[in-house]
Amino acid sequence: MDSSKSQIKRAKQLDALAAVLPMAAADRYAEVLTDADVATLKHLAETGIGANTLRALASDLAYLEAWCRAATGRALPWPADPELVLKFIAHHLWDPEQKAIDPGHGMPDAVIAELWDRRILKVRGPHAPKTVSRRLANWSTLHQWKGVEGRFDDAGVKKALRLAMKASGRAPQRKSRKPVTRDILECLLASCSGSKAIDLRDRAILLIAFAAGGRRRSEVATLKHSQISVADPIKLRPTDPTSPMVPCVRIALGRTKTTTAGQGAFVFAAGRAAVALYEWMQAANVTSGPIFREVRKDGSIGANPLTPQSVNLILKKRCRMAGLDPAEFSAHGLRSGFMTQAGRDGIPLVDAMRQSAHKSVQQAAGYYDEQEHAQSRSVQIFI
């Protein structure tokens, strides 16, 4: 079979994974990936691996294949030797000032040009350390799935990566420049206070995403009716014996970034969030399947779930309607906003983590906005 027919075959096989792979780039992926790569991705999909994880694996595998061919003139080998891993680190974690002096430093210009022209490379400078770490981790994972032993624990590789990370002067970028705290959320909710289906849906999305612990956009987009159950009402003011009761729902998290479907993780959403969810489900007649669905221009409601990107676009649209700069916020700001607001309200970190489902204290604390840190009592201990 010639290369053209093989590429068409791979494209068709990738189409079968359209629900989990970024298929806007299907043809480009078919050019880069090998038949064995596509077979690996199909196997991963059949094992029930999370959609986001599979998307990241597919994207990183396509990048690694393209980079290796551009940098070495050959296909990505399995297993990869330590020298190739070291070359990857050198090509992606480098000093721009040194490259200005020495053009041979970092990724060669010819490699940059080839990857850029093929729309594989998205930045011309050094990569973010987190991106490099993720790609190396996924490269190692793919070795395991292919049944070959990688050399990513090689002492030379680990030392080179550690030194490159330390030398990198690139500050980590937040997924959302600003957190969506309570005051910002109220502005967004005011923009969807109407009774139209799209207002009901967007209000429920914003409130559930925030109140249920700052849920990730993928978790909101894939939320299903079977994950929702009615919980006992709770007090609006827990310490007040005369406090009125408010409705509460229990949300089974299923598979998330830090949990698997079998772990039984769950969170709660109460008060306005629970009411907004009920109103949307009733208006959309959601009795099974996905909770959040497309609302067409004529106001009718589709059956298919939203995509994670749709959740992000909804938040940005509501930012524009509320007079806020959409560039300052993303859907992930609901997660950092929940943690930041918890800090403002004096909620113990362990309680906030129980609701957000964070596993690491360091990771959870990292979501606090820098300004909140600057205003904290720990900074003011001796002024």
TrEMBL record:
The record, for Gene3D superfamilies, names: 1.10.150.130, Intergrase catalytic core
The record's InterPro entries line, in alphabetical order, gives: CB (IPR044068), DNA_brk_join_enz (IPR011010), Integrase-like_cat_sf (IPR013762), Integrase_catalytic (IPR002104), Integrase_recombinase_N (IPR010998), Tyrosine_recombinase_XerCD (IPR050090)
Q: Which residues form a coiled coil?
A: none
Provide one Gene Ontology biological process annotation. Answer: DNA recombination
Top-level taxonomic group:
Bacteria
List keywords of the entry alphabetically.
Chromosome partition, DNA integration, DNA recombination, DNA-binding, Plasmid
Q: Which GO terms describe its molecular function?
A: DNA binding
Do you know which Pfam families this protein is assigned to?
A: Phage_integrase
User: Per the database record, which ranges form the Core-binding (CB) domain?
Assistant: 20-147
Which PROSITE patterns does the record cross-reference, listed alphabetically? CB, TYR_RECOMBINASE
All copies of domain Tyr recombinase, residue ranges: 175-381
| Official protein name in the record | Integrase
